[in-house]
Amino acid sequence: MHFYPKERVALFIDGANLYAAAKSLAYDIDYKKLLAHFRSQCHLVRALYYTAIAEDQEYSSIRPLIDWLDYNGFSMVTKPTKEFTDSMGRRKIKGNMDIELAVDAMELAENLDHIVIFSGDGDFRCLVQALQQKGKRVSIVSTLQTQPPMVADELRRQADQFVDLVDLKDVICRPQSARPSHRVSAPRNNKPAFAPRDTRDLLHQDDDEI
Asked: Per residue in 122-133, pLDDT tens?
């Protein structure tokens, strides 16, 4: 991924979409490595992670990751999932974060030069176009190496730059032999800190369902 000198960059991570893409490629993302990589490549202003949470459950398998990210350099944007019954009478849970990501990207764009969106969702094509009309560069991170591809063709073509997750594997993948530590340094205010679990243990989320 190419960055210009002193370019102000922000990462917008569609958690459900990135999880699904990484899972399809059979590798686990080390979010500490991901953050360190971008900090070494550009002037990283902010890294935002978007996900929905089933708040009515006593325990959510994605909660440890959310807590860890929140204490380790990511800005977390979450909302409760919504349960509904479809026309066939099947119970489904919805947790789409597209609107929240799009609104934040447009609001923060004034203070950015380059927006990096971790998602292959074709619904973001209009967002990419709107950001480009503001004079911003937009990169999309997803993958073409699955069947079918995880990135929508119209989104990939609209972006200024497309980066395949396969090409980032060497720098953001957690080795299979590695195990996340169960303790990390305590954050301010003496709040407990959590290391992220293996993403294979996380609650699977689709674009519209969890």
From this structure: 999 999 999 999
Pairing of strands 82-85, 91-94: antiparallel
Judge whether 206 lies within some domain. no
22 half-sphere exposure, CB direction, 13 A CA radius: 27
> Distance (Å, rounded) from C-alpha 153 to C-alpha 121?
10
Contact 94, 209 (CB under 8 A): yes
Instruction: Write a three-state SS string for the chain.
Output: CCCCCCCEEEEEEEHHHHHHHHHHCCCCECHHHHHHHHHHHCEEEEEEEEEEECCCCCCCCCHHHHHHHHHCCCEEEEEECEEEECCCCCEEEECCCHHHHHHHHHHHHHHCCEEEEECCCHHHHHHHHHHHHCCCEEEEEECCCCCCCCCCHHHHHHCCEEEEHHHHHHHHECCCCCCCCCCCCCCHHHCCCCCCCCHHHCCCCCCCCC
- On whether the pTM is more than 0.85, the answer is no
- Give the model confidence (pLDDT) of 184-200 as tens digits: 333 444 433 333 433 33
Question: Number of folded domains in the chain?
Answer: 1
The CATH number assigned to the domain holding 108 equals 3.40.50.1010
Q: Which range marks the domain in which residue 84 is found?
A: 8-201
